[in-house]
Amino acid sequence: MPRLSSPSLIHKTLLLIFAAIVFGPLAALFTGLFKALAAGNFSLLSLALPTGRRLVLLANSLSLAFLVAVSAMLIGVLVALYLWRFKSGVGRYLRWLIILLVSLPPYIHALSWMSVLGRLKIMPAEGFWVSWWVELMAYLPLAVGLSLFGLDAVEPVLIEAGRLARPDIETLKKIILPLAFPAISACAGLLFLLSLMDFSIPSLFSINVYALEIFAEYSATNDPIRALLLGAPLLALAVIVIMFVQRSIRSAALTISRPAGREPAFLIFPEWLNWLQKSALMIIIIQILVPLISLIASAGSLKSVAQSALQAKNEITFSFWLSITAGLLCLAPACAMAEELTDRGTGNYWWFLVVLALVIPGSLVGAGLILLPVGVWLPVIAYLSRFLPLAALVILAKLRRTDPLLVEASRVHQPDNFSGWWRVRLPLLGPGLWAAGCLVFIFSLGELAATIMVTPPGYNTLAVRIYNYLHYGASAQVAGLCLVMAAIFLGTGALMLLIFSSGGRLIKLGAR
Amino acid sequence: MIRVKNTSKSFGKVLAVDAVTFEIKEPGVSAIMGPSGCGKTTLLRLFAGLEVPDEGEIYFGEDLVSSKKGCLAPHLRNMGFVFQVPALWPHMTVAENILFSLSGVSTEEKKERLQLLLEKLDLAGLERRFPDEISGGQARRVALARSVIAKPKCLLLDEPLTNVDMDLKKRLLDFIKNEVAASTPYLIYVTHDIEEAKSISQNILFMDSGKIR
Which of residues 260-279 of A touch B (CB under 8 A)? Predict the structure, then answer.
């Protein structure tokens, strides 16, 4: 495993910065809680134990999250199996398009479905099942993407060895799916937690969920400690789920990055499975087309889209600067953490913390940050706090793809540490850094749960403006803004995928 | 009889197998020799049904098993295949790996065949271990056991002894010559080592640039 030989003091400092940013908000909240308890305010603790209405709310949220995770995984695995077999032609482009759609924030899906259901009038655009469907649509690309990574990671020779002995369907059941299971189960766990922590979709479809309760409690009382205690059951659930899937996530993260070998021959499945795959594919096509068509139809002419964008000029500029700053600042600490995760000793502890950090509710991050000195750049800290772990995992994937011999050769031949790092190791890591920066940029641009709490007075981000408008229904103005946002997401995502999959050749060509 | 008729296979612009025609008329051991990249592995994969030929046909006996129009599924060919790497399934134990290809056989017979192979290949006691708990040499032997337990009609060995130490190489070659070859009607052994080829068979086919010379 290549390991950047940065001076250990810098490495340790960067790790400390990583931990401080990611866990700082939670630490601030817990410090506040201990202070309140030390002052004898023990009655607060009752908030951590949901009873009555809150218990029902938690049960409803759990059922919704469970249903979303199970259905998304069922459809996701079926679609992934189909795309995995068709690696060339249309299948190849569809696979990239689906991965790109992961970046679209849930509320854009909410808007488009709100608009479609409003036009069709076949059912009311609110309630549990509509919320489930829209969440399913929002998380489906992630389910397909991670399942695809899992399937891609199965070595072709293991599949071929199975095909020589048994029919393809048995090879699928006994070899391919068990070997892809770490990625699939990790994805199911993540989807469950993401759905549990998200309040944007349910709130837009008039469903009250537990995650919204945290935000509502903070809005009503302006007390971050109460928000923490209310969020305690969600945090406890996250820890439990992460304990179960952490090994899977780790295993998936370490294998998805394995460079692809020879593609296995085309597998022949029974008709019933082909039929199921095609049905699942139809759902994903609906998932792709509905936001696109509905947003274009609702936004009206190009002129009105431009007008909406012009009206939100300040928000777009502000969001852009915040997100690009987060995308740049994440690189050094994420790089240090990625290296640390490859360490067999300390890496074990960091893995748990990094995976846990991925699912800390955004509203808790926001509540914790409010306790810190307020500044106009506070949203940047919120973005880093939420997305640094993701950046670290992307860089880790690139580290795993790098041939260790290339790094070792540079260690032997480099005139000094700096030239070895600058001329060999940094270029090798370049595509990973680029992808991590882009990913943090696009996720920051769409971030809502923490931003809504930490944006300083007088400022607003594009995501918050869209969310605020959405409560008044799907208007042409908000559709125009969503279209602008979607274009930024998809454009940046496409560039990121292009450079990451080209192995950095595009960066090198540009540099020449 | 195994008959390969005018068979070609290319990957993009690389012509791996170029209009190959030959016959193995009598049962026995055949060796295919040639330098790295000459198309030996692709030819074996075509036999096994893991690749579809671009042109030509492959027959086992009178049965057409591969042509560009379609291929008989690999598991229906009654073949064993030892890959260049052991290719053991990491989620299965040694015993599960070996027994995977055995179906339609009583549990008693499964146990019997497994024990016999484990003993012959010095693997006794390892049946409950997982692939990451055994050595590279042991993994090679497990791969060999897996490919012969179902008593295939044809066994394909693709440089099975590459990167194996001299002592183990000699033992495995003896096992293949004395035990496997005796019970397998057709055995095709691919190697780039002339000594290895000579020691296993008198019937040696030379391959170069995708063609049988």
Answer: 265, 268
Collect all residues of chain B within an 8 Å Cβ-Cβ radius of residue A163: 49-50, 73-75
CA-CA distances (angstroms) from residue A248 to A147, A182, A244, A431, B39? 13, 4, 8, 25, 38
The SS3 of residue A355 is helix
B85 touches chain A (CB under 8 A): yes
Asked if A1-32+300-512 and A48-298 have one fold, the answer is yes
pTM, whole model, 2 decimals? 0.77
Confidence of residue A6 (pLDDT cuts 50, 70, 90): very low
Tell me, what's the pLDDT at B113?
A: 93
Which residues from chain B sit within 8 angstroms of residue A175, using beta carbons? 89
Instruction: Choose between A162 and A409: higher pLDDT.
Output: A162
Please give the ipTM for the structure prediction: 0.79
CA gap A495, A426 in Å, rounded: 20
Query: Under an 8 A CB cutoff, do B100 and A165 touch?
Result: yes
Q: Where are the domains of chain A?
A: 1-32+300-512, 48-298
**Rounded-to-integer distance, Cα B174 and Cα B194, Å:** 16
| A173: contact with B, CB 8 A cutoff | no
How far apart CA B8 and CA B20 sit, in angstroms, is 7
Residue A360 confidence (pLDDT) = 80
B47 shares contact with chain A (CB less than 8 Å): no
Domain covering A1-32+300-512 in this structure, CATH number: 1.10.3720.10
Check if B198 contacts A (Cβ < 8 Å).
no
Residue of A nearest to B156 (CA): A164
Reduce the secondary structure of B152-164 to three states and give it as a string.
Answer: CCEEEEECCCCCC
Q: Closest Cα of chain B to A402: distance in Å? A: 22
> Is B89 within 8 Å of A175 when comparing Cβ atoms?
yes
Strands B28-33 and B186-191 turn out to be parallel
Residue A78 — pLDDT band, cuts 50, 70, 90? very high
At A261-318, the pLDDT tens digits run: 455 567 888 899 999 999 998 998 888 888 788 878 777 777 877 887 788 788 888 8
CATH entry, A48-298, from 2.40.50.140, 3.40.50.800, 2.40.290.10, 1.10.3720.10: 1.10.3720.10
Smallest CA–CA separation between A174 and chain B, in Å?
9
HSE (CB half, 13 Å, CA atoms) of A466? 32
Q: Residue B5: helix, strand or coil by DSSP?
A: strand
DSSP class of residue B74 equals G
Cβ neighbours of A158 in B, within 8 Å: 87, 89-90
Mutate to test the interface with A, among B41, B45, B75, B151 (most CBs of A within 10 A): B75
Residues 191-210 of A with CB under 8 A from B: none
Residue percentage of chain A with pLDDT more than 90: 9
